[in-house]
Structure formats: C-alpha cells, structure tokens
Amino acid sequence: MARHIVAALAEIPPGSQKLVHVKGRSIAVFNVNGELFGISDTCPHQGGSLAAGATVGLTTSTEPGKFCHSRPGEFVRCPWHSWEFDLRTGKSWCDPRKFRARPYDLSVESGEALVAGPYVAETFGVSVEDQYVVVEL
C-alpha cells in the first residue's frame, strides 16, 4: 500500500471535513472529535458529493414517541437525496445490503516519522511544525 500525505492535521479540525484527491480518487476526510475517517466522495446511490454532505448522529427508537440520539457526527448525509452513510464502515442505513460507500484507512503521523520512512526523494532543509494526515491505498 502506498502512503500519501494529503493534508496537515490543522487543516481538518474536529467537526470539519476536506476533499482530497489521491491517484485519481476523490476521498472525503472527516474529523469527528479528533478521530479521522476517509470515505469515497461519491454517493453510491446517484453520485452526490459526500464531502459536501452534513454530518449527523444516529437516532434510534424503542417505541413510538421515545428517541435516543447517539454517535454524534459519525454519519454523513448525501446532499442530493439525504441517504446516510456510517463513516466507520461506509454502510448505508437506507438499505445496508445493497449500498456502501468505500471507506479508506487513515492515520495521523508526525512529520518526523514520515521523513524517516522508506521514501526516496531529493532532500532539502525541512522543519516540522504540524502533524500530517496520511491516506493508505
């Protein structure tokens, strides 16, 4: 798996999202309370941009008139038809058997660790001030 630096962590603060492009793929990166999720930017229903969607929580009910809200910000709602996808798994909550947005593995590593990795590149003087977000494909 190749590793790609897509953003400084400071560019995606908690509660925000950023659209990045890696090897021709559009990936929406979400920061939910400091936890990062990567998901395909294309809604599998009709192709809406999930990076442009709102993040919401899960609402469940055990009986009429009683609701429980949980997992705030862990779902993205497609701006075109409001289909919702779990950022952890990519599964749709409309019909999870048929539709799923592709999730991507993400990690946050220090700039120093990236410089020490197995990369071969011309080097220049570099200073490290922030952490970087890395997408693995």
From TrEMBL:
Keywords: 2Fe-2S, Iron, Iron-sulfur, Metal-binding, Plasmid. InterPro entries: Rieske_2Fe-2S, Rieske_2Fe-2S_sf. The keyword Chloroplast does not apply. Signal peptide: none annotated. GO terms for molecular function: 2 iron, 2 sulfur cluster binding; metal ion binding. It holds the Pfam family Rieske. This is Rieske (2Fe-2S) protein. Gene3D superfamilies: Rieske [2Fe-2S] iron-sulphur domain. It comes from the Bacteria.
